[in-house]
Known about the structure:
Elements lengths: L1 H18 L14 E5 L4 E6 L2 E6 L5 E10 L3 E7 L4 E7 L4 E2 L6 E10 L3 E12 L6
Antiparallel strand pairs: 1-2, 1-9, 2-3, 3-4, 4-5, 5-6, 6-8, 7-8, 8-9
Amino acid sequence: MKKLILLAPLAALTLSACEETAEEPVTQDILGDYSAIGTEPGWTVEIKGEEIAFTSQNGADFKLATKRMKKTDDGWDLKGFSDSHNINIYITSGTECSDGMSDRTYADTVKVEASDHGTLNGCGGAITEGPDGPP
Length: 135
C-alpha cells in the first residue's frame, strides 16, 4: 500500500506534463515575390522565390540566388552574391515613396547596393496611388 501511495504523486506529475500544450513551430518569414524600381539611372529589382534579378539602364543585368533574407523591425534586408556580382537590398515597409517620374506612389522605400552601380534609391511594393493604384 505504501508503494501505491508513493507512486500516486508521480502519476499525477506525469499526467500533468501530458496536458501541457506543445510549443508552436518556429516559422521563417518569407518576403515572397517583390518588385522595386528606381530612376536616374533607371533600374529594377525583381525578387521571385529564391532569385534576385537586377536590371539597369546601362545593360549590366544579372541574376543571383538569395543568400540571406531577413525580416527587420522596419522591413526586409536581402543579400545575394556570386563570384562576379553582389547585391544588398534594404526595404523600408510602410514608408511611401514616389518614383519621381510616373505619378505613382509605392508602399515602400528601397535602397539597393549593387556591384558596379553603387547605392541606388527607389520604391517598391504595392502601388498605393497613381494610374495603376487604388482610386
